[in-house]
């Protein structure tokens, strides 16, 4: 099962934001997407998950035409929003937020749902006291982890994470990173992770794609990428993250 | 000593804090609770039976037996006003409920289905809105026959379009929130999304508007009863009492003034409470849901 993007272009009105993107996601594999702010990463992620409509003949699931639609294909390709606070309902507490997909998609009975929700909270390193709190009573990083826990509760075939670690401290980042590594293999998910931070991608991604000006300019295996970044943007990103280059040789 | 708050000054400062900026709300709330008590226990509290005719004392001045005097049939005005509370406020509430029952689904459907559903529903609402409200209500009452039920139905049918438009606007805004989209991705069914994520957003402002509309409803319903198109005699209803008393205004003004004053007071208290709730909501800080 693969999710394939072929020649995808998106324009907001007259301005072309992404053009001729080709990208393939595989199960149990993580692709990193890096690029400067405003280059169109979120737009690509939203288009491939149906949050904004992609033109026909651009998305393929197992070589078959695929038109994502949030209401129906949320458990096939799932988008975790860049702004976690805004993507969590202010009327529900953390536990209910995580329980929602368990009930709606997986039809779990109440007991099992609660237990699983607590497990997920624990998996994303959240304190049990957060369970009864609503988003505005939580910190940005806590909200981010609740959004991640909810995305994992959905258990989609392909998960698109838009800056899932941006609000976390380095220690928590480390823990969530290892969680995501575990998830990839245990849940057989194909993951696309968007980040500004090359170090994070180095630890997580099997391959790295670099976006610039709405195009994917470079897409390589992670090690090859760090060994020989070809384009100026890629070189800059690698250069800047060199301070901790030791860790990249994994 | 000067630094120490005495208990009484503490109580006073607490009191002023509570009242500050809420005087109108508290005043309205006080009157409204009096009306609610009367609506529930009017019959038991009334000094006389509301329909007891005493032809020897018709149009009498206030006295100990008849604190507000009597009407043209010698019925105790105070008792009729007290007993009439439940009918008068009840019909206004029922009308508001009926309006909400029409406007809420129509507005939600229009906003969430978009496309031709939206276009059709809103054109229908426009057609209803194009008629002057009272004329429209009168037409429906003319068709159904004069009774309190047809007054309620007529007013509700004339009144729903403006509220439906408001529901539609509020829903459009509510449904475009990121967390609503996010919950669609989590597989929630449309009805669940409406119940869990849209209604909690739109109901508070709607209830404020409706509480303000209650005043208008009370007036329209009383006017209809006054015109003889709503509650029918001998029912003790404020508007109908006004209507019945009309010919005797010159003889004893209080027969007309008493129900008029009560209607004014009820309208005022609904307005004050509605304004108060709105002020409270306007004061909330961002992120303090
Ligand atoms: N709804 C929209 N209407 C018009 N233009 C938009 C819209 N959303 C995004 N854009 C523009 O499209 C471009 C790409 O935006 P996008 O959100 O995809 O960037 P990004 O790569 O995710 O940036 P960041 O790293 O800051 O999140 C930006 O220049 C932005 O101004
Ligand atoms: Mg973005």
Gist?
With 250 residues, chain A is α/β, with parallel strands linked by helices. Chain A has helices spanning 41-49, 70-73, 94-104, 110-123, 140-154, 170-186, 198-204, 222-227, 232-240; strands at 3-12, 15-25, 29-35, 59-61, 64-65, 77-80, 158-162, 190-194, 207-212, 215-221. In chain A, strands 6-7-8-3-9-10 form a 6-stranded mixed β-sheet, sandwiched between helices. In chain A, strands 2-1-4-5 form a 4-stranded antiparallel β-sheet, covered by helices on one side.
Dominant shape of chain A: globular
Q: Which protein chains are joined by the largest interface, and how many residues does each one contribute?
A: A-B, 26 and 21 residues
Residues in β-strands, percent of chain B: under 5%
Q: Structural class of the helix and strand makeup of chain B?
A: mainly alpha
* Class from secondary-structure proportions of chain A: alpha/beta
Query: Can you give the mean pLDDT of chain A?
Result: 89
Task: Determine the number of helices of chain A (DSSP H or I, runs of at least 4 residues).
Answer: 9
Radius of gyration of chain B: 23 Å
Kindly report the spatial arrangement of strands forming the biggest sheet of chain A: 6-7-8-3-9-10
CATH class of the largest domain in chain A: Alpha Beta
Helix content of chain B: over 70%
CATH level 4 superfamily of the largest domain in chain A: P-loop containing nucleotide triphosphate hydrolases
Instruction: Characterize the main sheet of chain A.
Output: 6 strands, mixed
**What are the segments of chain B in which pLDDT stays under 50 over at least 5 consecutive residues?**
284-289
CA-to-CA gap between the ends of chain B? Answer: 42 Å
| Major pleated sheet of chain B | none
- Determine the CATH topology of the largest domain in chain A: Rossmann fold
- The secondary-structure element order of chain A is EEEHEEHEHHHEHEHEEHH
Domain ABC transporter (chain A): 3-238
Pfam families (chain A): ABC_tran
Family (chain A): Belongs to the ABC transporter superfamily.
Keywords (chain A): ATP-binding, Nucleotide-binding, Transport
């Amino acid at each position: 099962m693969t999710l394939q993007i072929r020649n995808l272009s998106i324009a907001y009105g007259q301005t072309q934001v992404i053009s001729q993107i080709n990208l393939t996601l595989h199960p149990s594999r993580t692709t990193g997407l890096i690029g400067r702010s405003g280059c169109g990463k979120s737009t690509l992620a939203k288009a491939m998950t149906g949050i904004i409509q992609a033109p026909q003949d651009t998305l393929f699931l197992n070589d078959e035409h695929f038109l994502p639609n949030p209401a129906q294909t949320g458990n096939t390709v799932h988008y975790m929003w860049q702004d976690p606070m805004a993507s969590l309902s202010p009327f529900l507490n953390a536990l209910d937020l995580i329980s929602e997909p368990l009930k709606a998609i997986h039809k779990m009975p109440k007991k099992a749902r609660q237990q699983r929700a607590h497990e997920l909270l624990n998996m994303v390193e959240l304190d049990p006291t957060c369970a009864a709190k609503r988003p505005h009573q939580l910190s940005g990083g806590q909200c981010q982890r609740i959004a991640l826990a909810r995305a994992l509760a959905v258990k989609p075939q392909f998960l698109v994470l838009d800056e899932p670690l941006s609000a976390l401290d380095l220690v928590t980042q480390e823990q969530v990173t290892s969680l995501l590594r575990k998830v990839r293999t245990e849940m057989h998910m194909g993951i696309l992770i968007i980040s500004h931070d090359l170090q994070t991608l180095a630890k997580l991604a099997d391959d790295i794609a670099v976006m610039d000006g709405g195009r994917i300019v470079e897409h390589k295996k992670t090690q090859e990428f760090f060994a020989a970044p070809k384009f100026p943007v890629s070189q800059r990103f690698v250069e800047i993250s060199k301070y901790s280059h030791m860790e990249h040789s994994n | 000593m000067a630094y120490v708050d005495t208990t009484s000054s503490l109580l006073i400062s607490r009191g002023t804090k509570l009242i500050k900026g809420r005087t109108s709300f508290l005043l309205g709330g006080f009157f409204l609770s009096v009306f609610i008590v009367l609506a529930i226990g009017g019959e038991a509290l009334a000094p006389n039976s509301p329909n007891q005719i005493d032809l020897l004392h018709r149009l009498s001045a206030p006295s100990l037996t008849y604190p507000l005097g009597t009407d043209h049939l010698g019925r105790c005005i105070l008792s009729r006003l007290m007993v009439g509370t439940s009918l008068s406020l009840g019909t206004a509430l029922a009308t508001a409920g009926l309006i909400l029952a029409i406007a809420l689904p129509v507005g939600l459907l229009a906003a969430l289905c978009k496309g031709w559903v939206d276009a059709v529903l809103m054109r229908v609402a426009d057609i209803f809105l194009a008629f002057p409200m009272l004329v429209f209500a009168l037409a429906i009452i003319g068709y159904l026959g004069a009774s309190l039920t047809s007054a309620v139905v007529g007013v509700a049918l004339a009144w729903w379009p403006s509220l439906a438009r408001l529901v539609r606007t509020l829903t459009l805004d509510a449904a475009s929130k990121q967390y609503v989209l996010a919950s669609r991705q989590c597989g929630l069914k449309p009805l669940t999304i409406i119940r869990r994520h849209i209604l909690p957003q739109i109901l508070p402002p709607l209830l404020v508007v409706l509480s303000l509309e209650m005043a208008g409803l009370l007036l329209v319903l009383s006017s209809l009863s006054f015109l003889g198109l709503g509650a029918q005699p001998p029912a003790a209803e404020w508007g109908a009492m006004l209507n019945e008393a009309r010919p005797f205004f010159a003889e004893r003004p209080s027969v007309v003034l008493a129900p008029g004053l009560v209607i004014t007071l009820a309208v005022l208290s609904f307005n004050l409470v509605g304004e108060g709730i709105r002020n409270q909501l306007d004061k909330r800080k961002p992120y303090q849901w």
